[in-house]
Automatic annotation (TrEMBL):
Keyword terms: Methyltransferase, S-adenosyl-L-methionine, Transferase, tRNA processing
Top-level class of the enzyme under EC nomenclature: transferase
Functional pathway: tRNA modification; N(7)-methylguanine-tRNA biosynthesis
UniProt similarity note: Belongs to the class I-like SAM-binding methyltransferase superfamily. TrmB family.
Organism of provenance: Sphingobacterium ginsenosidimutans
Reaction catalysis annotation: guanosine(46) in tRNA + S-adenosyl-L-methionine = N(7)-methylguanosine(46) in tRNA + S-adenosyl-L-homocysteine
Protein name: tRNA (guanine-N(7)-)-methyltransferase
Amino acid sequence: MGKDKLRKFAEVATFENVIQLDAGKEYKGKWAEKQFGNANPVVLELACGKGEYTVNLARLFPEKNFIGIDFKGNRIWRGAKTALEDGIKNVAFLRIQIETLLEHFAENEIDEIWITFPDPQPQDSREKKRLTGPKFLDRYQIVMKPEGMMNLKTDNDGFYAYTLEQIELQNLKKYKETTDLYHSDLVDNVLSIKTYYEKKYLADDKNINYVKWSFEKR
């Protein structure tokens, strides 16, 4: 590991808005109260990377709490540092494997989940690691409130098609969908937030897919 990564790992351990590994289990069922000191809705960004979406959503919606989740501390460092420097109080980051979500969040605790440009895990042998696969969707449904919403943005057409297939197989209700977000009438101040990777994809003239759904049956 390079010196810069080691520095970021050491620094992120001192940030008050970063909770790591088993420490997050103590927050289960009381994230709003214990981390943010309020009773506001809690929104997750899964595989948040540098946390651009998490931080910018928090700027737009100060009446909600946002938690970015990723396992790589050197990535979380950027979003957490930005939030601290800019005094954004409704942001936190949790460094865990997403597979352990149920150990850190209680049933019906989450109001909304964002998945933005995750690793599509295209190989058939890695299907179980896809963040919109059946086992992950089951976890999300448990922690999500009945009226909660799921959002996916991805440049990967295959992963998007796979996600739509899973939504169809579970007979879930879709609210919005497009295979070309920036040439659709769906784009707004929320969907126009761009991550580091999204900017690269757009520079290469790549289409951006988006779907919003819930666990309500059609």
